[in-house]
Amino acid sequence: MKEFINKNPKLIFVIPLGIFLLLGILLVFFAVKYPENVPVYGWITIILFVLLPAICIYGFIFGFHLSEKQKRSSEALRNIITYSEQEIWIHKPIVDGTYSIKWSIIDKIVYFDYPGDDHAYYTFYLSDFPEFIKNEKQWWLNRLFPVNVKMRKFTLYNDCQNF
């Protein structure tokens, strides 16, 4: 049994989801047989007990595919790194701004790459706060909740452009 699960690790998630799906189908059966005993919120719960496990099982078995438009939009939200002899700039589209970190304020740079983890990253430990330059046009949520620039530890993941 252990070898079978090691060959099919998705079964760890699919089997409990299948049990919830069967429970949902059983609930639908009794709700259709005795509809006078099921209130509106009961129908909503029963539908969720069927739909959520079914969607999750489909995702685990067949996977969800991204369209080209979704890939382009996620690519546009990736951080971009540029640098010169004086400083390094980290452009963060999600917060509508750029962090400007002078090389002189960097105390140390630590590289992390754990085995089995796809995301290697650098952590910059700074002696001073980085400068944050806002874009001219900001999204309304970024204007409502400004970015915290008072940080002396900065993490940079390997999925950045120009990494």
Polypeptide structure, described:
The chain is α+β, with helices and mostly antiparallel strands and 163 residues long. It contains five helices and seven strands. The strands form two sheets. Strands 1-2-3-6 form a four-stranded antiparallel sheet, with no helix packed on it. The protein is elongated and about 75 Å long. The model has no long low-confidence stretch (mean pLDDT 83).
Summarize the structure.
By secondary structure, the protein is an alpha+beta fold. It has five helices and seven strands.
What is the count of β-strands? 7
Helix content: 25-40%
Task: Please trace the helix and strand order, writing H or E for each element.
Answer: HHHHEEEEEEHE
Radius of gyration: 24 Å
Strand order of the largest sheet: 1-2-3-6
The percent range for strand residues is: 15-25%
Give the N-terminus to C-terminus distance in angstroms.
43 Å
What's the main sheet like?
4 strands, antiparallel
Structural class call reads: alpha+beta
* Principal-axes shape call: elongated
Low-confidence stretches: none
Mean pLDDT: 83
